[in-house]
Amino acid sequence: MKRGLLIWLLILCFSVVFAEGTRQLMPNNTGQTYLQFNESFGGQRYFAMVDTDTIDRLFIHIAHVGEVINLGFNRLSTGGDVWFQIKNAAGTIVYGPQYIPNSSATGYINTFEEADIGPNTLVGGAGGYTPFVHTAASTGDFYIEFQREGTNSTQRNLFRYFDITVSDAADGNPIDGRVWAYAWDLNTNSFSNSSYAVFYVYSDDMYITEVDINGMQPYSFVIACNNTGSRNTGNLYTDRQSVPNANTVYPKYKIFLNPPDPLVFPVAEIPTMVENLQIIGTPTVNDDVTFYVNMTKSGTLEIYLDIDGVPGFQGGGRDIALVQHVEAGGDYIIWDGRDGLGDIVETTVSVIVSSRFSTGVTHLPVYDAELHVNGYKVTRIAPNGPEALVLYWDDSPITHGTIPAWQVITMLSGNTVDYGHNWSTDSNNPQGFGDWHTINTWWNGYEINDLASFDFTLLPIELLYWKAEFKGTYVKLDWVTGSEVNNHLFQIQRSQDGILWHTISIIPGAGNSSQHLYYSEIDETPLAGISYYRLQQIDYDGTSSFSAIQAISTDTDFSQRVKTYCRIVNSKVVLHAHDIMESDIRITTITGSDVTANTIIVKITDSIYEIDISSLTFGTYIVTAGSEQFLIYRR
Predict the structure, then answer these.
(1) In which band, very low, low, confident or very high, does the pLDDT at 95 lie, cut at 50, 70 and 90?
(2) 512, 532, 553 — which closes off a domain?
(3) Is the pLDDT of residue 5 over 50?
(4) Among 14, 58, 7, 62, which residue's Cα sits nearest to residue 36?
């Protein structure tokens, strides 16, 4: 019932539009934006040409047999003849080849008003044009192909007006949201002309956003969207940056002229948070720090680490931005403990964490768009729309001179919705900041900005093991460090109420060590009843940190069982487990292959095993210890 209501509301909102073509490229006859094919500027482009690849096709979706494709054109370029044909989803020609007329005839659009109204054969089409018509005998994504003939066959072809409208054969009603492409090839026919085209992007995770080009001056350009940015190398932080002196646009998402038909193209559900952002384990110097979050939907997690002491994220310095796709149901981002300059972050630095989770992430990289003084306007249409969205960009790789005060080079925190990503001219880019560059802009279909924000300090010791145990007349205290940095000493502290603490023993630290070090101490006069113990570690510079608290009862033979767990330390898995023998430990790949023989298992204590996995290839593995299993990542 809920889904049915959503579809009904979308139909109610979207069914006021009829034509699909020039009406969206030049809303209210504003600006000059023309569909084109056979463009060779900056390298040959193959949009909507005969036998082109899937990524360059102009699609018409047919949902039901008997639906009708209605078409009309008016060519801005008149040299040589142009014909078109329609192929069904199987690639079979089902209409044409059909020449496009250069004057009044069937399939010719005389004026903008005719293109704006649409086919005159449909409901609401009075005053429109007389269309070419094809009735579909099958379903799927049909596509149209164009070919130019004569001496000008190698030149670009621009359509002054065009319209492609799908209709219901039974009642003649137009069906909007059926015409789409991965990469629309367009032209303003002059450097001084502006484009006010409007498109609707349908992301792979089913978010619909309206993009108003809003006066960009690009001349010949392509509109294409994806989920990573100007590139797709796997590094989401750098992939989303603008790229100088290169065309790195790549298409991935479907882009429509009207909101996609909701009966054919479903809409996403809004994600919710199951577990907030947190750090797994205790972060220590010279070791990985693992962040964890659990969302109901997959998306992009951004974590900003403020390390340099200057409030906010500062690019190009010590601060770190972690950007990664995370899966639903719980996923991790790992920080290697180094700052933006590649140096190990020491214990005296307090790391401030801010974060954002996003779905419907959409990037719009545009090549060689010289000027854009107004900036884009982007609106989420569905789900839960309409809602104006903030935009993000990082133009820092583009060399530039003095720019206008209103032009911002890097916007990672999100701009206001009134001023989209805009750019002008400067001494390095006299024709326009976007001249010969790929300028990327992105937005999030939905953002959760209230993930946990916190600060933490990297501990100077890596505490692998810490336990207090009553032995009948005394308490035995044991701990193991995996590494130590600038460690002066340990203080063993005891409390009867967990509030007031007293130091009962001081043990010297090792200073600096990368080896496993084992410590032990005895409390010969324990308190009666329940008491608490903790370790305070103190650096040579006076900074300190505390371990977890151990509770001990001296009334009975109390033995606190440690939960089985493991972690990776410098290509070694440290496994903490009681009642486990070495033969109970197995390491397998995620496909089930047993690779235990390729590891070295060493028993450290009765409940600690060290497993050397340095011989394993990088990837994900499963550690099985009795009935417990853990995912580990060899990096």
Answers:
(1) very high
(2) 553
(3) no
(4) 58
More confidently predicted of 624 and 90: 90
Same domain? For 32 and 150 the reply is yes
State the Cα–Cα distance between residues 401 and 391, nearest whole angstrom: 23
Last residue of a domain, one of 175, 190, 225: 175
CATH number at residue 582: 2.60.40
Cα gap 596→603, rounded to integer Å: 15
Dihedrals phi, psi of 458, to nearest 5 degrees: -70, 125
| 534 three-state secondary structure | strand
Query: CB of 24 within 8 A of CB of 213?
Result: no
Q: Indicate if 488 and 514 belong to the same structural domain.
A: yes
How many Cβ atoms from other residues are within 10 Å of residue 59's Cβ? 21
In one letter, which amino acid is 246? A
Residue 260: asked if its preceding bond is cis (omega within 30°), the reply is no
Its domain, for residue 587, covers 565-634
Host H or E run for residue 440: strand 438-448
Specify if 402 maps to a domain.
no
Note the Cα 288 to chain centre separation in Å. Answer: 23
- Give, in order, the Cα–Cα distances in Å from 421 to each of 157, 183, 224, 375: 30, 21, 16, 5
Q: Extract the tokens encoding 248.
A: 């790195």
When pLDDT is cut at 50, 70 and 90, the band that residue 519 belongs to is confident
Specify whether 611 is located in the same domain as 466.
Answer: no
- Co-location of 509 and 617 in the same domain: no
Q: To the nearest whole percent, how much of the chain has pLDDT over 90? A: 60
* Three-state DSSP state, 112: helix
Burial bucket for residue 151 (CB in 10 Å: 0-12, 13-18, 19+): exposed
How buried is residue 324: exposed, middle or buried, by Cβ count under 10 Å (0-12/13-18/19+)? middle
Query: Where is pLDDT greater, at 42 or 401?
Result: 401
Q: What is the pLDDT of residues 609-619, one digit of tens each?
A: 889 998 988 77
**What does the block give as tokens for 81?**
């003849």
pLDDT in tens, 128-184: 999 999 999 999 999 999 999 876 667 889 999 999 999 998 889 999 999 999 999
Kindly give, in sequence order, each residue whose CB lies less than 8 Å from that of residue 155, ignoring residues fewer than 6 positions away.
Answer: 38, 77, 79, 148
Structure token digits, residue 230: 């100007």
What CATH number is associated with residue 485? 2.60.40.10
CA–CA separation, 585 and 632 (whole Å): 14
- DSSP annotation of 431 reads T
What's the rounded mean pLDDT across residues 346-358?
Answer: 78
At residue 548, what is the residue type? A
> How many domains would you assign to the chain?
3
CA-to-CA distance for 116 and 174, rounded, in angstroms?
13
Residue 574 lies in a domain: yes
CA distance 549 to 97: 80
Tell whether 347 is covered by a domain. Answer: no
